[in-house]
Automatic annotation (TrEMBL):
Name of this chain's protein: Sulfate transport system permease protein CysW
UniProt function note: Part of the ABC transporter complex CysAWTP (TC 3.A.1.6.1) involved in sulfate/thiosulfate import. Probably responsible for the translocation of the substrate across the membrane.
Protein species of origin: Paludibacterium paludis
A cellular component term, taken from the record's GO annotations: plasma membrane
Location within or outside the cell: Cell inner membrane
Domain ABC transmembrane type-1: 64-271
Membrane topology: Multi-pass membrane protein
GO molecular function: ABC-type sulfate transporter activity
Amino acid sequence: MPNSVPAVVTTESRPVRVALTCAALGFLAVFLFAPLIAVFYEALSRGWGLYLAALLEPEARAAVSLTLVTALIAVPLNTVFGLATAWAVARFEFRGKSFLITLIDLPFSISPVVAGLMMVTAFGLNSPLGGWLEAHGFKIIFATPGIVLATVFVTFPFVARELIPLMQSQGDEEEQAARVLGASGWQMFRRVTLPNIKWGLLYGVLLTNARAMGEFGAVSVVSGHIRGETNTIPLHVEILYNEYNFVGAFACASILALLALLTLVLKSLLEWRVHRQGVASQARVREARVAHRATAPILESKA
């Protein structure tokens, strides 16, 4: 039976539909497009020379560098942790599974400022662990490690939350068929699991990277606001704005806005690919189920 999407039947009159559409577009224009355009307008209001000079200042370059370093550490860590967590939740039944899923959502439900305070409590100089680390030369709070830890905490759920429903909907029939045909665990993951989840995985990585670069609350608490050392781009923007350096503040903010626009474009592309993958995956799952039913008697006879 072919998969077909039923046509949506609306009963509203044409003037009502036009009015609702105009209201939605007007809301987007006022609350989304206008502030975004204002950022670039203010950044370039004094010309390209001052715009580029603001971006090339040593403190701005240090903020950009620290933001990139933090993202380069936090995103791979959360990719590995999220993939392992999604695999465990989607493929196995174990005691405490519901508690683990609840813990995954903890960074979503807690304020980033509170997350930063948790890091200070756990790794600050007055805590037993933080004091011991400080005595051995490892400074966590008010240094790059603390910023990385706070970023890892607030961005942890994105990859796992993207992969868990995707892997649960796909099932494990293809993986079981691969195992029956003699594939090792690594071969099964590399040739079956990873191709099936690659677009969802990239989508989660993209969201993680966007949040890592734009995180403010948790990073603000643990950074100490040391100029040129522990300020990421959002923190540097806040300092410049409070000092009435509007060109510098909006110039740095435009970098984050460009990253957000790039994220939206890639997000739309990945959503389209994930949708196509979901349709194709359903067909493969049906084929895998047929193959599994055919090979199961052979496996049972060997056993």
